[in-house]
Amino acid sequence: MLKHVRERFLSKHILSATITIITLLLASDIFITYFNHQVMKENLLRQNQAENVKLAVSHAIYLIHNADLALRGYAAFGDTTYLPPLRFAIEDKDSIYHTIEQPLLDQHYPLTEFVLLKDSINSYLNECQNMKSLIEEKKYVELKKWSAQAKGYHLWLQYKRLKNHIDQFQDQVKSDARSEFDTAMQINYWIEAALLMLCVPILVLTAIFAHKQLITSQKLQQIEAQNSQLLCEQKTKLEEMVIQRTQQIQLQNHQLKEQHERIFRQKEQLAIQGEELALQFEALKQSKKEKLQAYARIIQEKTITIETIKQELEKVRKTQVWDMLTDTNFNNLLHARIHTEESWQQFKINFDAIYPNFFAKLRQQYPDVTSAEQRLAALIKLNLSSKECADTLGISIISVRKARYRLRKKLQVETSVSLEDFIQTSF
């Protein structure tokens, strides 16, 4: 069984590898054929360009011949009908230069010799214009001297040298293009031969493996038929086991459902109890908060009463004669505060009942805050105004403002946030 599976696995992968190799070879052949086609087109263009360059270079000699013939005819016969070739040579020289120069630039040909010839032709045409003027002025002696220099012949020799060099270069370009084309075609032949040599053995091997795979497939069908019968028997047993297990699971689900319902009812009862406890806690908290506010009002009222008594006694002091003992007691009364340590502790106990973490968080986050500043922060937490804080603490409003400023600085409250909002949200 294991051997058949291994052979099937190998045949499958060999077939895939065969298809992949043939596909790659065909793709390579297509690519190289396309590349060769492009090389052929490019080489044909290069050959045509080389012929066009040769033809364009041959046009340059027409400039020399036309100018020379026009000048000689005009000098011999004095007839202006011989002059148009000179005018045409001057007018056409730039277009002929461009026709020659641009292909040479494309072929990276050195233009030094061509530029020299172009300058020589331009100089010769200018001298032809001057000689035309000498003929018109009948200065034949000077014309004869110029003709004796044979500048046209020397210019023709210069042209001939350039043409030979360009022809040799263009022949080399054509030869290189033909060589590249032959190389590309040879590579294409080798690829096609390699494709043929590889495809034939691969196809033969593929046919052999396909035949083996067919035999293996038939054997596997027999094995699968046996396995199918075995699976049917196992399936029947599994179905019976599944039915039994399903019944057990249904029973367990029923038990779990009943247990879940009991837990759900218990959770509902606990939720109701929790809501009742929350209401009781909120009511207790509100009651303690009201007691704390009432306690603060009592302290405030007592402080106001003491301040009133102080003011009355101060008036009496100014109008009566007091002995030293009375004066000492009076001074003690003037400096008395209703907010003693005992009353502060009682206030703190009531305050902690409502805001249990207020003082702990304040001391933990800002350890530099003093006890007096803690009391002021607690009164601000109760939403007391500055006047109410002053009355409760037994100090002036100015002192409260200074204390608020110091507290705000220690708490590092931003200017855009009020001290009341900061204390209400932070503690």
Automatic annotation (TrEMBL):
Record keyword Ribonucleoprotein present: no
Protein name per Swiss-Prot or TrEMBL: Uncharacterized protein
Keyword Transmembrane helix: yes
Organism: Xanthocytophaga flava
Keyword list, A-Z: Membrane, Transmembrane, Transmembrane helix
A biological-process GO annotation: regulation of DNA-templated transcription
Membrane-crossing residue ranges in chain numbering: 12-35, 189-210
Recorded GO MF terms: DNA binding
Gene3D superfamilies found in the cross-reference section: Winged helix-like DNA-binding domain superfamily/Winged helix DNA-binding domain (1.10.10.10)
